[in-house]
Amino acid sequence: MTKTRIRLSDLAAQLDLEVEGDPDVMLSGVASLDEAGPGDLTFVRDAAFAVRLRESQAGAVIALHGLDVAGRPALRSADPSRDFYRAARIFVPDSSPPAGIHGNAVVDAGASVDETACLGPGCFVGPGARVGPRTILHACATLYAGVEVGADCVLHAGVVVAAASVLGDRVTLAPGAVVGAEGFGYVGHEAGGLQRIHNVGRVVIEDDVDVGANSTIDRGTLGDTRIGRGTKIDNLVHIAHNCRIGEDVVIVAQAGIAGSTVVESRSVVMAQAGITGHLRIGPDAFVGPRAGVHKDVGEGRRVFGAPQRPELDWHREMAALSRLPGLLRRVRALERGARKEDESE
Amino acid sequence: MTKTRIRLSDLAAQLDLEVEGDPDVMLSGVASLDEAGPGDLTFVRDAAFAVRLRESQAGAVIALHGLDVAGRPALRSADPSRDFYRAARIFVPDSSPPAGIHGNAVVDAGASVDETACLGPGCFVGPGARVGPRTILHACATLYAGVEVGADCVLHAGVVVAAASVLGDRVTLAPGAVVGAEGFGYVGHEAGGLQRIHNVGRVVIEDDVDVGANSTIDRGTLGDTRIGRGTKIDNLVHIAHNCRIGEDVVIVAQAGIAGSTVVESRSVVMAQAGITGHLRIGPDAFVGPRAGVHKDVGEGRRVFGAPQRPELDWHREMAALSRLPGLLRRVRALERGARKEDESE
Amino acid sequence: MTKTRIRLSDLAAQLDLEVEGDPDVMLSGVASLDEAGPGDLTFVRDAAFAVRLRESQAGAVIALHGLDVAGRPALRSADPSRDFYRAARIFVPDSSPPAGIHGNAVVDAGASVDETACLGPGCFVGPGARVGPRTILHACATLYAGVEVGADCVLHAGVVVAAASVLGDRVTLAPGAVVGAEGFGYVGHEAGGLQRIHNVGRVVIEDDVDVGANSTIDRGTLGDTRIGRGTKIDNLVHIAHNCRIGEDVVIVAQAGIAGSTVVESRSVVMAQAGITGHLRIGPDAFVGPRAGVHKDVGEGRRVFGAPQRPELDWHREMAALSRLPGLLRRVRALERGARKEDESE
């Protein structure tokens, strides 16, 4: 892939930052202090890193105002980390499919795709589905009938959105994410065996939500499954039917949340945790990694372990557990002592 | 999406139920008591819910015979829940791709697709593969060479079936499910490193099985991996090579079963549980959520925890664990007492 | 699917093995001793199995030199298991899409695909992407812009490779695997909520790596996520941004490794284990099934449980835990005895 090459002074103009030193140095990438070469931009935000800058091969640096950069070409910034990632976006832009609707994409006659949207090859937009302005569907993304996707969304390759689900604006679905599959709800069949409940609910995803690769969010049975504004979901997460996830919730990889559970705003569910159905978590709660939650978690509470315990209790119990084999021996010794007592009576 | 609108009397005729009150009320959806609006049908199955019906905005209700519906238009039913979901199927039918074989689907010359089957855009049916009557393949579903799919199956978007696997009738594969990937079996390589065993087994899925979104079922090494009739598998479940799962087994989200394990009929494996390879579980066994099973589980037994214990033992141990930090202090107190005894001797 | 039929003498020639007995027996498959029919080849590697050969219906057998095969047609081998799987490869070859670039595949004008590569229908090779000699992309595999895939790779249906990631030679990605999705890294937003860090890193996968079905490997934030030569990854595994996995590492199903963790060569991470970010594991370490690792694991160390403990400690603690309810009673008895002592003073 051809790399973007850009002059430091031009970069400064784009980022609205001040140049210090040679404005004509040419840059073609971004890198950390240790990995940067002469064509790379790097950044330093405090004096500790400024020392390591001397050994760096970086062609230029974004540095906090006042930090010594030993003469290296620099852009001065009040927030070097933020401005560095702004620069990164220029050097390594996000990958997009070709603009417009690819000839190999299929849009149902009854669907509506905004003229500024971008559909990769192999996409399918089903009957009655809608795709908003500037939204990107990568290759083989599939929207079932009646799905609505807002503006500025990115649906990566192989994503599936079913069940007439509704996505707000700036929603990102990573490759392979599945939104709106049937919930795992069955009733006993008269003839024996299990019969799936016919689901009519949707998944509603509000603005600024990210869903990770190969994660799954099931549609509601009657009402909707709902993911609140700003919530971020990592890879391989499972969210069952009729869950209601609040705003700015963070759910880390491989966590699972069973049906109809409510996770309130700003709560964090760590990796590989599991939450039983019909519970209420948070707001501002913290479910530790690998925790197994089977009871409600109150506002701001932190739980760990499986079954769940308050954080401090869990640390105490785990520390005590490591002393348990020794404790068994100590109690045996006490019992022998007691028996001697008895015998001597 | 245009909503279905239907007159109560017509709905009654379709469901073969009796109307009570205004037969001409127009309905366009189904909803729970609390969420229903004037265009919605709801249901009540007992007196407790009948009270809440007064506050409901529902346009009509499916109610148990004899329940007071306070004059609201009603359909009388012996099983309101079941008939409600029958009605739901009319208002919100399952989404299907356009009938027939979509122009953008690819069917190998040596494949055979029943004329009543329905293939969405981007599907691929490989050499020698067979698709039965009324079976639906949604967009980008892929059947490798030699795969056989029975009648009335639904393979959702992005599904992959490989390894000449065989699906019975009425099998549902949710989006992203992968059936027939290579098993995770290796032998040491003469030159060092690991070499994959060449797999020749298939996956055989019997009638009425559901497989959840992004779940994976690996092909057998020599013999087949087998999923028995009526078994229901949730999302993100992993079933390894040569497992044999019985009939009417339930496997909940994110559970994993290692190679060659047998899970007998009507057993339940709860969410995030893990079962080691070469074990035998059930029949009618229950593996609790997050359990780690490394030994056989007998018929009808219930195990919890990791490593697994009988249900009652596990509850006792977890309760005892919460008292362990206190126990350490109590034993220390006893030891101090005993030492005093010793000193006073 | 038409089955391959092959004469025993021809098979012997292909495998370079010696025939014993009727060289004209026709074979059409491979099977285990118990499942083999008259058209099947089976194998025996020691005397224990040779006894069971008498009851087998197998048409022919690959047997260790000198083992009694009771007159059955045989191929003599120094390593019957290895030669059996070599034969299996002849009877049940791996499934491939049609040779060449399928008419329904899309190759960007700026991409480069080796003329010996094989692309199934619905594949997309993005701008600047490269596909090496003899590499196979099954249906609907997607390569984003700038991705590089070496020689003799197999990318199964529905695979997605993004972020200009680089795959070596003989890499296998099972169906639905996602390589190069965005990492789960956010910074607080000035206006509240979370903003994703713009990632510029790639995933680099070295030679002879296998990645399982629906597994996910995220791209690096600044530097790359790296999977070392010969490493084997099972299904539904999650590897986060900037992890560095060594050579010949084995990572079993549903395990998860958080950001920037290093797993050194020849380590094994068992199923459903979880490893926190920024740790160092191994080399030659063993992380037990369902272990929760939150601290470094030294070279060759074996850890179990969550939180992690050395193997022996864990076994002791789990055994002790089962005695804890009894221990509580014993301590109570001691306390009663001590109190009696006190009272008698």
Helix and strand content put the structural class of chain A at: alpha/beta
Spatial strand arrangement across the major sheet of chain A: 10-13-16-19-24-27-30-33-36-38-39
- The proportion of residues in beta strands of chain A is 25-35%
Biggest interface, chains and residue tallies: A-B, 66 and 65 residues
Q: Provide the gyration radius of chain A in Å.
A: 28 Å
Shape of chain A: flat
The chain-level mean pLDDT of chain A equals: 94
- Give the name of the CATH architecture of the domain at 6-91 in chain A: 3-Layer(aba) Sandwich
**Number of discrete helical segments of chain A:** 4
Q: What is the oligomeric state here?
A: homotrimer
CATH topology of the domain at 6-91 in chain A: Udp-n-acetylmuramoylalanyl-d-glutamate--2,6- Diaminopimelate Ligase, Chain: A, domain 1
Find the count of extended strands of chain A (DSSP E, 2+ residues). 39
Helix content of chain A: 10-25%
Low-pLDDT regions of chain A: none
Beginning-to-end CA distance, first to last residue of chain A: 91 Å
User: CATH superfamily of the domain at 6-91 in chain A, please?
Assistant: MurE/MurF, N-terminal domain
Sheet with the most strands of chain A? 11 strands, mixed
